[in-house]
């Protein structure tokens, strides 16, 4: 029996701290938008990079981005800021994982603590060498905060699936009426 033949319950779980990762990057002039602040797409790439590293570490192999939820930009990031992008697995299913990401910025010209400038939730699917879904170890929340994140991730998953179902039903109904999109 290979690991792929097992259910997630038959695979040893991993604690949230096992794959937790931080990526740090100094923002430069090439990262800016027309307003002179760091382009949101640059931050989103850092978010996807660290989340992908966490998903790969937790799942023990390749994982691909399936969706990004609730990307929030809370404060602008400026040239010279040292940005820390922190991520951990919040929830796991059979082959998917939700990764929570916090983005912090240390202002280069201020001696103040890092400020949270963004956050996001991404869903990753673990894949094998043929690009097919593979089973991931269950995540084992360690702290009360981890347990809260796990429960919130389950709520987000329920909402994602309900939204997907509602959109599919609407499209199917429109197609049955002969309405093209």
TrEMBL record:
Which ranges does the record mark as transmembrane? none
Supply the InterPro entries for this chain: Cytosol_ACT (IPR040170), HOTDOG_ACOT (IPR033120), HotDog_dom_sf (IPR029069), Thioestr_dom (IPR006683)
Kindly state which keywords UniProt assigns to this record, in alphabetical order: Hydrolase
Coiled-coil zones: none
Q: Does the keyword Hydrolase apply?
A: yes
Q: Which GO terms describe its biological process?
A: acyl-CoA metabolic process
Q: Identify the SUPFAM superfamilies for this entry.
A: Thioesterase/thiol ester dehydrase-isomerase
Pfam families tied to this protein: 4HBT (PF03061)
Can you give the residue ranges of the HotDog ACOT-type domain? Answer: 17-130
Which CDD domains does the protein's record reference?
Answer: BFIT_BACH
MF term (GO), any = long-chain fatty acyl-CoA hydrolase activity
Its cellular-component GO annotations read:
cytosol
PANTHER family tied to this protein? ACYL COENZYME A THIOESTER HYDROLASE, PROTEIN VDLD
Hey, which family's this protein in? Belongs to the acyl coenzyme A hydrolase family.
In its UniProt entry, what is this protein called?
Answer: Acyl-CoA thioesterase
């Amino acid at each position: 029996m290979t690991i792929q033949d097992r259910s997630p319950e038959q695979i040893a779980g991993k604690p949230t701290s096992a794959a937790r990762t931080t990526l740090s990057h100094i923002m430069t002039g090439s990262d800016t938008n027309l307003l002179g602040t760091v382009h949101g797409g640059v931050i989103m790439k850092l978010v996807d990079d660290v989340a992908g590293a966490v998903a790969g570490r937790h799942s023990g192999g390749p994982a691909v981005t399936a969706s990004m939820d609730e990307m929030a930009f809370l404060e602008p990031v400026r040239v010279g800021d040292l940005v820390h992008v922190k991520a951990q697995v919040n929830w796991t299913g059979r082959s998917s994982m939700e990764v929570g990401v916090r983005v912090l910025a240390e202002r280069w010209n201020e001696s103040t603590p890092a400020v949270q400038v963004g956050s996001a939730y991404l869903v990753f699917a673990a894949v094998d060498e043929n690009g097919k879904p593979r089973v991931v170890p269950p995540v084992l929340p360690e702290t009360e905060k981890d347990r809260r994140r796990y429960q919130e991730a389950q709520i987000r998953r329920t909402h994602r699936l309900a939204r997907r179902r509602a959109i599919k039903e609407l499209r199917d109904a429109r197609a049955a009426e002969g309405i093209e999109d």
